[in-house]
Write a structure and sequence with these properties.
Blueprint lengths: L1 E5 L7 E4 L10 E9 L2 H8 L11 E2 L4 E5 L8 E4 L9 H4 L16 E2 L2 E2 L6 E4 L5 E3 L5 H4 L5 H10 L10 E5 L5 H11 L3 E6 L2 H10 L3 E4 L4 H8 L5 E6 L4 H10 E9 L20 E3 L6 H12 L7 E5 L3 H9 L6 E5 L2
Parallel strand pairs: 7-8, 11-12, 11-14, 12-13, 14-15, 15-16, 17-18
Antiparallel strand pairs: 1-2, 1-4, 3-5, 3-9, 3-18, 5-6, 6-10
Bound molecules: (1R)-1-phenylethane-1,2-diol (FEH) and zinc ion (2 copies).
The site of one zinc ion has 4 residues, from loops.
Amino acid sequence: MRAVRLLDWGREPVLGEVGRPVPREGEVLVEVEAAGLCHSDLHVIDAAPGALPYRPPFTLGHEVAGRVATGSDAGERVVVHGPWGCGDCPRCAVGRDNLCDRRGELGWHGVGLGRDGGMAEYLLVPSARHLVPIGDLSAEQAAPLSDAGLTSYAAVAGVRHALGEDTTAVVIGVGGLGHLAVQILRATTASRVLAVDIREEALALAQRSGAHEGTLLRADTARVLRAAAGGVGADAVLDFVGNDATVGLAVDVLRPGGELVLVGSGGGRLTVRKPGVLPPGFRLSLPFWGSRPELGEVVALARSGALHVETERFPLSEAAEAFGRLRRGEVRGRAVLVPG
Ligand code: FEH
Ligand code: ZN
Ligand code: ZN
């Protein structure tokens, strides 16, 4: 079968031929119908030897949906919960593989992250516990829910307590994750949602996603956002970029006691010290992906019509083009590979 393979560190992925996997006891073979691209794929591709605990060669793709290919559930349409843990620790026992206690011993983080992933015609899943039924959702809509959707959902869930009536949430970065975060905030909180990005088309996407206001990232953005947040500042800022400029903006607009959620891997730094200049009582979280129960909640939200993923389709054969567009920041919403 064809698969997008990371053959070694420092090499661009290639579309190659590998044997179609044969499931053993307990494993499930999924015929892939959609596989999303993520900036983390670029981090993996660009990683220096030894920077990640993975051992190439392996197939990329950690955002996967398709159809069970063999066994009693053959034909069932599913999305794959991507973080694959040890399966035995207290975290994995409740589907929190994203926070597996043995994460550092495994040599992988999940599907397409050290284990063979879903940018291929078939995917071997180690256990049915990693599968969530998607009913009548299209695979193109479902695949991004497993990473972009789940990561955004878990980020919002962590601060939902602070987002009741008369509150404001700021979303920095309205790309594959940010546009879903806007929708999730609107669907699951009472907060007023403000969006920030450097691209006009991203602000248009934010508006289509339900943001109350959008503003370009400029020198006076902190002032604009504080004014839009009633002059007191934002109750939560979700930063899906995570560079020095956006982390700095986040702490400038946070209300005392506000929540900063750092999701983006832009490498931005924040000096945390007392005494210091940070908002009194503010709290910082760095969520990572989400749990399998949370993925079930995201799928239910999408099936209710509350979530729509903006996608750009590419045939599997054009994976290199898709990665190039992602790297240049030219993808609107989420890029998804489909068979072809
Ligand atoms: C996966 C593996 C490592 C870092 C970040 C990620 C995210 O893309 C998962 O949502
Ligand atoms: Zn990802
Ligand atoms: Zn575990």
